[in-house]
Amino acid sequence: MERAVVQVTLFGLLLVLASTLPNKDDWNIYSFHINSTVTSRYATTVITSRVANRMDDSKEIEFQVRIPKNAFISKFRMFIDGQWYDGVVKRKEKAQQQYTEAVSRGQSAGLVSSVGRTLEEFKTSVTVAAHKKVTFELTYEELLKRKLGKYELQIHARPMQPVKDFKVDVYINEKAGINFIEVKGGLSTKALANAITRTHADKQAWVYFYPTEDQQKTCDGCGEQGMNGDLVIVYDVNRDTSLGDIKTSAGYFVHHFAPSSLSRIPKNVVFVIDQSGSMSGRKMQQTRIALIHILNDLAEDDHFGLITFDSSIFHWKRELVQANKKNLESAKTFAQNIQARGATDINAAVLEGARMLNAHPREGSVSIVILLTDGDPTSGETNLEQIQSNVRRDIADKFPLYCLGFGHDVNFEFLEKMSLQNNGVARRIYEDSDADLQLKGFYDEVATPLLTDVTMIYNGGTNLTQTNFSQYYNGSEIVVAGQITDNDIETFTPQVVAISRDRRVTFSNTNATVEYTGTDFDSHVQRVWAYLTVKQLLEKELLFSGPEKKNVKKEALELSLKYSFVTPLTSMVVTKPLGEKTDVLHKPKEGGPTQARPSPVGHRPSARTRNGKTRLLAHPGSFSRKQHKRYQNKFINY
Ligand SMILES: *[C@@H]1O[C@H](CO)[C@@H](O)[C@H](O)[C@H]1NC(C)=O
Ligand SMILES: *[C@@H]1O[C@H](CO)[C@@H](O)[C@H](O)[C@H]1NC(C)=O
Ligand SMILES: *[C@@H]1O[C@H](CO)[C@@H](O)[C@H](O)[C@H]1NC(C)=O
Ligand SMILES: *[C@@H]1O[C@H](CO)[C@@H](O)[C@H](O)[C@H]1NC(C)=O
Ligand SMILES: *[C@@H]1O[C@H](CO)[C@@H](O)[C@H](O)[C@H]1NC(C)=O
């Protein structure tokens, strides 16, 4: 309180500001720290917020932070009045039951909800007695994915008020050596740029971000409520040309494979573009712009096809042709004139794309289909399972299908499943002013195939994550984790076999790359294995049916519980002092039709009944089983 008054006087705006300072007089975040440690691309971040209730009455104090969607929360606890209260990760149904009981007793539940493109909001609260303090501590973990030649660690800072002791500490440790490191994001600009210190020494890097209270108020997008924005740490590691990085510890290994000094393989690409009525206006305009940029970037030895569809199919040309100047000019004119109208026959369009590629076999090339759609199938075959089965039959594992779901009216789960069934990935394109860049960005990720039929072989390894990959693109990375049989490092021999532009290649270079870093205390490699395994099991759950589905679900659940990950199958039950409301935190679903639209500032997803004791914070889509960030281990990352 004293501090607030001093500042206000300084600004000479006592009356005006005092009335706009929310909550400033009754509670105070006196310390807010974010500590992120990245080892071999696995980031563990701890957010610690210390809050004091300065009032003469007890007060409900809220803790609300945003974390990357791709991360799993692994720990949450509160320290109140000399005691820690540790949250417990439980099977979702069990936690849900506890929550239902709590609600029927007039208590409440909290949640994690999806916010914008990349973040989820975690929110809980606790009642703090007069003149007492509370410490909130949240831990989350994620494997950073290499995309277009770099890793990005996103840290969102929005403490809700300027904080005297505010710190972000990032420590990166990569044994391959750090090639470059940059700090980006809204919080790295203007007044805040001075608050960043960056140190980089071969295998280690440190980023410190210590803005003063004044800086927290005067930066871009900041105000009297303090900062609200991102700090994005961008880096890449050094690579040798061979087998890549293998780290082993306590019986587990993780292998990062991303060779870059290979020749690109010419590609055959068919673009299947939705021109149904719902695409009209800005979406269609952005699609035209993106297509023209993409066409400009095709290499002369690429071959391509372009079809648009509504309830009918429109060919630019019936067969694939070479990306020479003349053809590209003609295709650009076609792209320029795509008009939106009619319904959506996804089945016929994708099958036609597959037909064109099947009719165009070419030695030493790579084929891909890219589908862009903004809606559900409404014309021709509309049974989703039948479409999936037709597409699978015609593609027959010969090339990947990438599905781009434009906007929020798409059935993303349908696209996701269809992509996974055909060795591809689905990506959401957000309806926004940069949608054309999102489209082009996705294309860039698959623009340069370097290897096909990649088989990762680990003699002496067991319980491996995915080991076969149909294609490897420049700028991405293949990650495989597993256990070493009997922890026998001597007999453990990793090897990669693949097909490059002109020949079959084998990567093996064991003694130089396998590094034993382990102590039993360093469970980090094991957690990477668990993280990847859970992500891939969740994908399989989407893909499978019947007993297989049940088995992978069971396995994913067991691992989530063992490693205390809040996944779509588990929930965090927040433990609080006796007599307080119960909070149950679920991981939200990305992709369903109920998914919240991207919102730049916090959105309140739900009904709130402030008067009673019940405060049910429920997002319609947040209790679902599935989760958007799939295909962890494909080369295309999101
Ligand atoms: C951040 O976390 C790491 C790992 O737990 C710890 O070693 C380090 O001391 C922490 N740094 C700060 C500034 O708290
Ligand atoms: C792959 O990317 C690297 C930079 O990340 C670049 O130096 C290299 O030339 C690219 N390879 C091809 C074949 O484009
Ligand atoms: C690892 O694999 C072995 C069999 O190879 C199996 O018995 C064991 O349960 C697996 N461990 C885990 C954690 O999945
Ligand atoms: C992976 O590929 C190899 C060789 O291409 C094949 O023998 C093996 O069955 C494949 N494994 C899986 C799990 O698909
Ligand atoms: C493996 O180690 C042996 C002996 O230590 C060495 O001669 C050989 O060059 C190493 N192989 C590679 C690929 O580094």
UniProtKB/TrEMBL annotation:
Keywords from the UniProt entry: Glycoprotein, Protease inhibitor, Secreted, Serine protease inhibitor, Signal
Residues of the signal peptide: 1-20
GO cellular component: extracellular region
Domain named VIT: residues: 13-142
Main localization category: secreted
Region (Disordered): 580-624
Biased composition (Basic and acidic residues): 580-590
Molecular-function GO terms, alphabetical: serine-type endopeptidase inhibitor activity
VWFA domain span: 268-446
Superkingdom of the organism of origin: Eukaryota
Compartmental location: Secreted
InterPro entries named in the record: ITIH, VIT, VWF_A, vWFA_dom_sf
Pfam families: VIT, VWA
Family: Belongs to the ITIH family.
The protein, known as: Inter-alpha-trypsin inhibitor heavy chain H3-like
Source organism: Perca fluviatilis (European perch)
Lineage start: Eukaryota, Metazoa, Chordata, Craniata, Vertebrata
